[in-house]
Design goal:
The structure holds four protein chains of four kinds.
Chain A (H helix, E strand, L loop, with lengths): L3 E3 L4 E3 H20 L37 H6 L1 H10 L4 H21 L1
Antiparallel strand pairs in A: 1-2
Chain C lengths: L4 H19 L3 H23 L21 H32 L13
Helix pairs in contact in C: 1-2, 2-3
Chain D lengths: L6 H20 L3 H29 L2 E4 L7 E2 L5 E2 L4 E4 L1 H24 L6 H20 L3 H19 L6 H32 L4 H7 L4 H17 L8 H8 L2 H26 L8 H21 L4 H25 L4 H40 L15 H14 L6 H16 L1 H26 L15 H19 L1 H17 L1 H9 L4
Classes of the chains: A mainly alpha, B alpha/beta, C mainly alpha, D mainly alpha.
């Protein structure tokens, strides 16, 4: 077909995907539209669940800051990130050093091997 | 066509929200034991959910402290109708050894309308399961009452 | 051997400049190191175009001599010198601004951006 | 006389003369200056587009500066390919097209974005000089000219990175970039010297026609490879990149993305067109593949933990450049073997080349959207933002499109090029495809983080005054969004008209040489 992108191992067809997306989003929206609407307006049922506490006026109090995102990921990979962050030391001489080092390694690989 | 219209044909499983209103954690551990493989209440479709907005039953453990009173009321209000309240443990039923303590509002039925009391300190998982089975019956009654009320309202509206 | 001497000088100069950049802590000295590297590069280009006994590559002044040094590397070097001048001036002005903001020329202390 | 043969010179002359004309236009007032700034960028884009059409129809364009032919014939009958030439084959035209689109979008965006700063005249001039340097790197056919344009682009970008000179961080980022970049530039010049010393020629095609792999050529190749890989941000040498990208004004960052692609262009041009098959069985393709894989993975894993929006997106530049190096490295690996080239090598090159275009478009858009957030909130810290989707709906939609494209979510264009790279690098070793997939997942994770913390969530009191950004900034972002959507909806057209000619031009080293040398050698 004219609109297929062949990769040699498979193909990509944007229009088939868009048709699938339209069908999937139709069903998703239909299911979402089936939700209950018998909650009582103006009572606590209108509010978000905040462990029973008063919901703060300012959104600041109920925001998860970006620092806390992927906390477990960072915690689990702490040794890896310790090494990686210490490489980004902010020291400009280190940065020049890495350039010289990589040039040296590539030279050794290309010229000697 | 709303999904709750099908509920009589395909009844929904029991979803439970657990509130600790001042318990010593003994009852909460028994609730967890009920979920564990030996008793495995999830095979019956009953599960603990993370927000009262999904729940059918509010599970309360422990006596109600002054601090927890308004929070408990708010959480109760956030459970959609029809709803039932189940109290686990002697403290929640009668305040037990904390009776007339200075910082207690009292047992749970001073604050919320309670449907099922499960005694024991802490109650065994079998007792909790039996309480849940009774709560289902209560919940069905409430649902019928609610439907009757709605149909009357519809009739009154039609007239 | 003696013909290769200029290339050895170029290599040594380049390494001196590199060492200055990598070892020194003072920003001005680092800028001098970059200057030395630029000088080494320019010298390298000039040396490439040199022919033993050659004269200046200008046709009218060449006289009787048959060999002339290559003109292209000299043009390249002039361009490279102009570029080196621009970068040196720019780098020094950046160092002045850094000194104003950080109050130091020590490269160890200018590392607010990291991680 | 057909004026279109002068297009390669016009594409450089227009922004260069424009840069020096802007102070004059400034005498006529602010509006005239803005109009001229945008018109010059638009004219550059139109010329780049016409150049691309011309190259597509009539093949490689060679433009000799100040002469009829590229070679100078001595009285003794010897001829040297000595004149300065601009050589535009399909790949150069492709790069010039994407560079000028990025420049146009950045120009539209900067008109409103820079209004609050002083010294806009200097800014505009430097911006146009940076455009000139970038386009010059992309279309030159001469090694020394490549160095000169590299330095023009570098110096202009140092100035633009450190443009807000009242901010210590901006000066620091500019200085770091400058120090590393100067060393790299000198390495490029030494490599050019090596090649000149061996072959007495600076013309890429002339060098390519006689090259054989000796020690001097190997050293020159290593120096060019390391220096240009540093300029486009490859893993252990990338540390200046997030600093510089985060501190530059947003419109400039959009252009800096295209400038780093010009360095990548130089790297690819040297590997494919100058050295080409002479590299034989050396380790260069593997070095490129491994550098690419390392950049991909380590760049993205640094990005996940950032909390400054432009720094986070800057780390993604590193990982995305890794994809291109992986694709083009696999192509280079298969270059000597026609069977492997047909099986997976050409697909990998198509993926890499396509990814260059996609990357420049969506990364430019992401930086512009981050700049829009900075414009309205006055901060780059994600912790301070929240709930902006209701207040800036257009920015949100465009950011979402760009974020989906960079994460490789189907059906956006990023997915197509990544798919080509996955499928072809799998043929070399499954590890590379797996690393690329993991990188893609982490990319999505970090963009979910940005989108959730900046655009979604409850509204904050201190952001109550926030309104949608001015229309010229929206137009700048819209240019890139429309390009992304066109690339998304017509992948077949894009591949057959934009990407495949460019990839063919890379493989066809003999064609590149013949376009200049003709009958000389």
């Amino acid at each position: 077909m004219w609109y297929k992108v062949m990769t040699g191992f498979g193909y990509w067809d944007v229009y088939a995907w868009l048709i699938f997306l339209a069908i999937a989003s139709f069903f998703t929206l239909w299911l979402r539209g089936l939700g209950r609407d018998d909650y009582k307006e103006g009572t606590y049922q209108d509010e978000i669940y905040f462990s029973g506490n008063d919901v703060p006026e300012d959104g600041e109090g109920i925001t998860v800051p970006a620092d806390s995102a992927y906390w477990g990921f960072k915690k689990a990979l702490a040794p890896y990130y310790k090494v990686l962050v210490s490489m980004h030391s902010g020291h400009v001489i280190d940065y020049v050093g890495y350039l010289v080092l990589v040039t040296g390694i590539i030279t050794a690989l290309i010229v000697l091997v | 066509m709303k999904i709750e219209k099908y509920l009589d044909i395909f009844p929904k499983s029991l979803w439970v929200f657990l509130v600790n209103s001042g318990s010593c954690n003994g009852c909460d551990i028994e609730v967890v034991a009920t979920l564990s493989p030996r008793y495995d209440i999830e095979r019956l479709g009953m599960k603990l959910v993370g927000t009262p907005k999904h729940a059918d039953i509010l599970l309360v453990t422990g006596p109600v402290t002054r601090f927890m009173k308004e929070k408990l009321e708010r959480i109760y209000a956030q459970v959609p109708d029809p709803k039932a309240v189940m109290v686990i443990g002697n403290c929640g039923c009668s305040s037990n050894v904390f009776y007339k303590s200075y910082n207690l509002v009292g047992p749970v039925d001073n604050v919320l309308p309670v449907d099922v009391y499960v005694h024991g300190c802490p109650p065994r998982p079998e007792a909790i399961i039996e309480g849940a089975a009774k709560a289902v019956l209560k919940l069905e009654e409430k649902k019928k009452a609610l439907l009757r009320e709605q149909s009357e309202l519809v009739k009154a509206g039609a007239e | 051997m003696i013909g290769n001497l200029p290339f050895i000088v170029v290599g040594v100069l380049f390494l001196i400049g590199l060492m200055a950049v990598l070892m020194e802590k003072n920003l001005i000295k680092i800028a001098i190191g970059i200057g030395i590297i630029e000088a080494a590069t320019n010298l390298f280009l000039i040396v490439l175009g040199y022919r033993t006994g050659g004269s200046i590559p200008v046709y009218t002044f060449a006289g009787e001599v048959k060999t002339m040094v290559l003109p292209t590397p000299q043009a390249l070097t002039l361009t490279a010198i102009v570029i080196a001048l621009a970068t040196s001036a720019f780098m020094l002005s950046l160092i002045i601004l850094l000194y104003r903001h950080y109050g130091t020329l020590n490269v160890d202390e200018i590392r607010r951006l990291r991680g | 006389m057909n004026w279109q043969i002068h297009l390669p010179a016009l594409i450089l002359a227009v922004p260069l003369l424009g840069a020096f004309a802007v102070p004059l236009f400034n005498l006529g007032g602010k509006t005239l200056r803005h109009v001229c700034f945008v018109l010059i960028s638009l004219a550059t884009f139109v010329f780049a587009f016409l150049l691309w059409k011309t190259v597509l129809v009539s093949g490689t364009q060679v433009y000799v500066m100040g002469g009829e032919t590229s070679a100078l014939t001595l009285p003794s009958g010897m001829s040297f390919p000595i004149r300065i030439i601009l050589q535009v084959d399909a790949f150069s035209a492709f790069m010039a097209l994407l560079g000028s689109i990025a420049s146009l979008a950045g120009a539209f965006f900067s008109v409103s974005f820079m209004e609050r700063s002083s010294g806009i005249v200097r800014f505009t001039s430097l911006y146009l000089i940076l455009t000139t340097g970038m386009l010059g790197m992309m279309i030159t056919g001469d090694l020394f000219n490549f160095f000169v344009f590299l330095e023009i682009a570098s110096i202009a970008s140092f100035g633009l990175v450190a443009f807000w000179r009242d901010r210590p961080e901006a000066i620091e980022a500019g200085f770091k970039y400058m120090l590393v970049s100067q060393l790299a530039a000198m390495m490029v010049l030494i490599a050019v010297g090596f090649l000149y010393g061996r072959y007495s020629a600076l013309n890429m095609a002339a060098v390519a026609s006689v090259i054989h792999l000796g020690l001097a050529e190997k050293i020159a190749l290593v120096f060019l490879l390391a220096a240009l890989a540093m300029k486009c941000g490859t893993f252990p040498m990338h540390m200046w990149l997030p600093d510089a990208y985060a501190e530059a004004p947003a419109g400039v960052t959009c252009l800096l993305v295209a400038v780093s692609q010009a360095s990548l262009y130089g790297l690819i041009r040297v590997c494919y067109s100058v050295y080409g098959l002479t590299m034989g069985s050396s380790l260069i393709p593997w070095v490129i593949i491994i550098l690419g894989t390392a950049s991909m993975f380590f760049g993205v894993s640094m990005a996940v933990i950032q909390h400054e929006i432009k720094r986070l997106i800057g780390y993604h530049s590193i990982s995305q450049v890794g994809y291109m190096l992986l694709g083009l490295g696999v192509g280079l690996l298969a270059l000597g073997d026609p069977q492997a080239l047909a099986d997976y090598g050409f697909t990998a090159m198509k993926g890499g080349v396509y990814h260059i275009f996609n990357y420049t478009m969506y990364k430019g858009l992401l930086f512009l959207a981050a700049g829009a957030l900075y414009y309205v909130t006055g901060t780059k810290d994600l912790n301070e933002m929240g709930g902006l989707a209701r207040r800036m709906p257009f920015t949100t939609i465009m950011f979402a499109i760009a974020a989906a494209a960079i994460s490789g979510l189907p059906p956006f264009n990023g997915f197509v090029s990544k798919l080509l790279i996955y499928h072809s690098s799998f043929a070399v070793h499954p590890f590379f495809a797996v690393a690329a997939l993991v990188t893609s997942v982490l990319t999505l994770a970090s963009f979910v983080k940005i989108f959730q913390t900046a655009f979604l969530g409850p509204e904050k009191k201190k952001l109550e005054e926030v309104r949608e950004v001015p229309s010229s900034m929206l137009i700048g972002m819209g240019v890139l969004t429309v390009t992304i959507l066109v690339l998304t909806l017509f992948p077949t057209w894009t591949l057959s008209n934009l990407v495949e000619p460019a990839a063919k031009a890379l493989v066809d080293q003999a064609g590149y040489i013949a376009a200049v040398m003709g009958g000389v050698f």
